[in-house]
């Protein structure tokens, strides 16, 4: 069913439904070598460095004014075409050479941005929002990158350039859930296998790839060990790598930036975007997305970017401790247990992207506009609980972002007249096991967290004193006894609530 284009302003009708355009290619961040996107590549064959995808004809986007682009994207909100309802609303900036027929849409993107309540904002001392990426299909931001990566694979399948695809990834949980979900939608054309660090993934996250039918392999060690195995597999065998080493993942995750810009009516003045850093793909994508919109004139300011790392997994933070760019040297770290489990990565594969893109971001901004802060595990957990007890549904990584905002505010990186947007990367339920251990004071000592009684919330069993008045499925009470049961329990609850 074709949309009625007559309802749109005449000057933007030709642009509402995008046609495949542009010439995408991989470019190495190390030696600048270029490669066709019709190959399955994740690192440069010449120097083994990571890649970024560029559009050789990106300048054509400037032929349309920034104001017109804004109208195009605002009007696309009205479309009912599935391929343009998700991240590909911004088709020209994410995958312009991909036809709509190859685009995979499972409901990802355009997640709600929720302003913190007055009490929480007063506690932090700055106006801020949570962007709830836990409301993506697999309950995390990873779906943005997977929609892009699997659409690129579907395109190659549709063009008969590949067949019988086996997709693999290493994961701390969220990546595997997203990869398995999107791959299963393309079954049997695509099969997925995921590698997880044994006993380092929550039970909810483990259930997701299993439920989607993926082959799940647990190996000893931590995520970084899984990543090395996956890299070896993708280098030796014809498999598709779905970690953020895959440059298509970065393209999809740029949509996070585009949505923020659109939600603020394209005004990025005085805005601060705060994201946790794990494998460093997300912060790379967020910066790159804003740079693209800035080059096209869609936004006239670049927002401040703050990456956050736990003291238990902080290689990017340590890299930027050295103020002299020429003296900086990246050194991987051995991670320690973190409640921000999805970001517990000591050797992020996208570190070269961070260095490259952050340098350009600061240069275009005309000042330092990218910062990295370190936070304590205690603060991650305490701020997550405070956020959720004030109307949010954020995961521990979202708690990490809020702790990062508090730290940045204390350091003067963020001022009281700015507005922050925090990344709630996954749904709180995925990491509810940490909350449970906190409330029960059962967190292992290695996390370095002492539960605060002010945040602890446990159920209170209310039962009649008379054991004959306790109902069950097997033993239903008579009318008289049930009336006494209700009266007894109601009275005790009323007393606890001080009614």
Summarize the structure.
Helices cover about 35% and strands about 15% of the residues. With about 500 residues, the protein is α/β, with parallel strands linked by helices.
Would you mind describing this structure in some detail?
- This protein is an alpha/beta fold.
- The chain is 37% helix and 14% strand.
- It contains 17 helices and 13 strands.
- The radius of gyration is 24 Å and the shape is globular.
- The strands form 3 sheets. Strands 4-5-13-10-11-12 form a 6-stranded mixed β-sheet, with helices on both faces.
- It starts with 12 loop residues before the first helix and ends with a helix.
- Helix 6 runs parallel beside helix 7, helix 9 (247-253) packs across helix 11 and helix 10 crosses helix 11 (281-295).
- The chain folds into 3 domains: 113-138 and 254-447, Rossmann fold (3-Layer(aba) Sandwich); 141-249, Rossmann fold (3-Layer(aba) Sandwich), CATH 3.40.50.1100; 467-496.
- The relative contact order is 0.11.
- The mean pLDDT is 95.
- It has helices at 13-16, 66-76, 91-94, 118-124, 142-158, 174-185, 203-211, 223-236, 247-253, 255-263, 281-295, 315-319, 351-365, 377-388, 396-411, 432-439, 479-496, and strands at residues 24-28, 34-36, 51-55, 113-115, 127-132, 165-170, 190-197, 215-219, 240-241, 271-276, 304-310, 370-375, 419-424.
Keywords, separated by commas or semicolons:
499 residues; 3 domains; alpha/beta; six-stranded mixed beta sheet; 13 strands; Rossmann fold; four-stranded parallel beta sheet; 37% helix; globular
